[in-house]
TrEMBL record:
Keywords: Calcium, Disulfide bond, Hydrolase, Metal-binding, Metalloprotease, Protease, Secreted, Signal, Zinc. Disulfide bonds join 138-151. GO terms for biological process: proteolysis. This is Extracellular small neutral protease. Its EC number is 3.4.24.77. Gene3D superfamilies: Collagenase (Catalytic Domain).
Length: 196
């Protein structure tokens, strides 16, 4: 009987050690993909500087796989913001490092009563690969002008943030598309999109 107790005493720690090893192997965290950093240049954005800063902050707060940061080297940004007198228009992404995205923040939409920060955040959503959904509610950023001038929401909803995270989940691709579609957002009753 003493030999059996001694055998069990030796066996229990060995079993617990094996169990602990199995548990720690299963609880090891999975490799997290590297966050894609996109740089932007807002030097030619003029009066849009404040709305751009807030729009970028809203996106950085909402997503995990991509981060937007101002460029430290002019001329080397992955995409640029610029103030224009026409309608907002943007390169439809997702744009990746080394890309050539362009966000034209048209004054015409603001003149019609639309919120500048919502416009900047919406156009940034195009850079991140989101299409328009004008029939969506105000809580959906990519509904753009659809909900009307009273809508000032400039934050992406959970589904939009999840789609952007999915767009950047694999990191930076080795092959990037050479053809970019440009989305022209006419923030009024008229809608059109174009490809360049």
């Amino acid at each position: 009987m003493i030999k059996q107790i001694a055998a069990l005493t030796a066996l229990v720690p060995a079993m617990l050690g094996a169990t602990a090893d199995v548990a720690s192997a299963h609880s090891a965290p999975h490799a997290t993909p590297a966050v894609v950093t996109l740089t932007y240049d807002a030097a030619n954005a003029g009066q849009w500087a404040g709305p751009i800063q807030q729009a970028v902050q809203n996106w950085n707060d909402a997503v995990h796989n991509v981060r937007l940061e101002p460029t430290s080297t002019p001329g080397s940004a992955d995409y640029v913001y610029e103030a224009t007198s026409g309608w907002p228009q943007t390169t439809l992404g997702p744009i990746f490092p080394g890309g050539s995205g362009d966000v034209q923040l048209g004054r015409q939409a603001v003149d019609e009563g639309y919120d500048a920060t919502r416009i900047a955040a919406h156009e940034t959503g195009h850079i991140l690969g989101l299409p328009d959904d004008y029939s969506g509610p105000c809580s959906e950023l990519m509904s753009g002008h659809g909900p009307g001038t009273s809508c000032t929401n400039a934050k992406p909803d959970a589904a939009e943030a999840a789609q952007v995270d999915k767009n950047y989940a694999a990191g930076t691709p080795t092959v990037r598309p050479h053809h970019h579609q440009v989305v022209i957002d006419v923030w009024s009753g008229r809608m059109r999109t174009g490809s360049h």
